[in-house]
Amino acid sequence: MKEDVRKLLVAETDDSVEKIDFINTLCRLGVSYHFESDIEEQIHKIFVTEPDLLDKNDYDLHTVALVFRVFRQHGYKICCDVFDKFKENDGKFKESLDAKGLLSLYEAAYLSTPGEDVLDEALAFTKVQLEQSLAAESMSSHLHKQIINALKQCLHRGIPRIEARKYIDIYEGEEYRNEMLLEFAKLDYNRVQFIYQRELKDISK
């Protein structure tokens, strides 16, 4: 299964965002440590060959924030100006932004560096908007759960294995999930958990 997942990761595609989304899924499911060199190679390739990826395409907020966060998480410098198009003329973020996009921006804003006021503003704005959005009856239970989890503990500051366990449940509810990847993540989580339990038993003795 590990080799099958790796083949999906390194497969050629014309859609760089789809590749980045897959890498994000591997990280969120807690299995990216199996493919560190391959992931680095794929991200580097996209970053070098498509430096204007977010500028030349009219992506929505969710996509822009996702690409921004993945690049930053892997040490690539990407300017926060990519979020300017989601602001009004007065410099404030648009009130009409959808909840999924706000959630992605909220998670991305935690990877700000000193002096990036736009991300500080984004964090404050999205937190308020997400809290208010929880009262919306039209929101899916799937997205509702993700927002609650994020507000309680943002991804960037969470404990990786705990975040992976939470995301496995979330990914299982995704309409377009990859069943093989989901099964691989579950098996890997249980395997790592067993190792931890065995180590704790040995230390306790």
TrEMBL record:
InterPro entries: Isoprenoid_synthase_dom_sf, Terpene_synth_N, Terpene_synth_N_sf, Terpene_synthase-like, Terpenoid_cyclase/PrenylTrfase. This is Terpene synthase N-terminal domain-containing protein. One of its GO terms (biological process) is terpenoid biosynthetic process. Keywords: Lyase, Magnesium. It comes from Salix koriyanagi. Residues 1-151 form the Terpene synthase N-terminal domain. Its cofactor is Mg(2+). One of its GO terms (molecular function) is terpene synthase activity. It comes from the Eukaryota. It holds the Pfam family Terpene_synth. The lineage of its organism: Eukaryota, Viridiplantae, Streptophyta, Embryophyta, Tracheophyta. Transmembrane segments: none annotated.
